[in-house]
Amino acid sequence: MTQVERRHDRLAVRLSLIIGRLVAGETLSLAKLAVEFGVSVRTLRRDFRERLMYLDLEYRQGLCRLRTGGSGVQGELDVLTFAHRTGLADAFPGFDRRLVSVLLASDEAPCLVWQLPHGVSPSGSLVFYRLVSAITSRQRVTLLGEGQRSESLAPYRLISLAGCWYLAGELRGHVTVHPLTDIHAVTVLDMTFTPRKTISQLTSQAAFIRALPHFSVIREALFLTSPGRGSADSAA
């Protein structure tokens, strides 16, 4: 396992444990969590602000809790659902309801992790939230980037790789990939789409995911070597 993979595993474990405790109804102290996980309070605040922004959290004097916490069986199911839908379950060998139940019932942390994850700006958090909402509701979006505008894009999946998030989608019948750092603003349109099964399957394949950082280069190479493009270059 590479150093980057270990860092992301530690982040996944930390977030999963925090979410599990919140769902179980615990009130968490950021100062105590910092000591437990071996990270700074600033890092934890970034975790809560940027990665757990979708949770209905209440903060008071360095303490944090869910406004409406689950418990028991429902709490276990909530954690399982969250972990599997985000891919965090892959960080745990044999991640199932039995393991979740043990983690939620533990007074001490059976797993200690530490991590200095790549941060994102507050605007990036808003972009992320809007994209998740659009993917879930199958609504088209307009993306604004550095000198680029993608109109009526169908967002399929957000994928994390090597500390970076990528949006995989479909634009005018073609697969497209956008690093989250390149997206400055997202407008969710009042237009729905039906995901194509082939593209949905493609975005979950390991080979596709590993190629995400190089997608623009691969796409350009395919364009330059396409039959039509090759003929035009030869004629020139």
Summarize the structure.
The chain has 236 residues and is α+β, with helices and mostly antiparallel strands. The protein has helices at 3-23, 30-37, 41-51, 72-86, 97-105, 122-137, 197-202, 206-210, 215-224, 227-235, and strands at 28-29, 57-60, 63-66, 139-145, 149-161, 164-171, 174-179, 183-192. Helix content is 47%, strand content 23%.
Q: What's the structural blueprint in terms of helices and strands?
A:
Layout: H1 3-23, E1 28-29, H2 30-37, H3 41-51, E2 57-60, E3 63-66, H4 72-86, H5 97-105, H6 122-137, E4 139-145, E5 149-161, E6 164-171, E7 174-179, E8 183-192, H7 197-202, H8 206-210, H9 215-224, H10 227-235
Antiparallel strand pairs: 1-3, 2-3, 4-5, 4-8, 5-6, 6-7
Helix pairs in contact: 1-4, 2-3, 4-5
What does this structure look like?
This protein is α+β, with helices and mostly antiparallel strands. It has helices at residues 3-23, 30-37, 41-51, 72-86, 97-105, 122-137, 197-202, 206-210, 215-224, 227-235, and strands at residues 28-29, 57-60, 63-66, 139-145, 149-161, 164-171, 174-179, 183-192. It has 2 domains: 3-105, Arc Repressor Mutant, subunit A; 122-235, SH3 type barrels, CATH 2.30.30. The strands form 2 sheets. Strands 7-6-5-4-8 form a 5-stranded antiparallel beta sheet, with helices on one face. Helix 4 (72-86) crosses helix 5 (97-105).
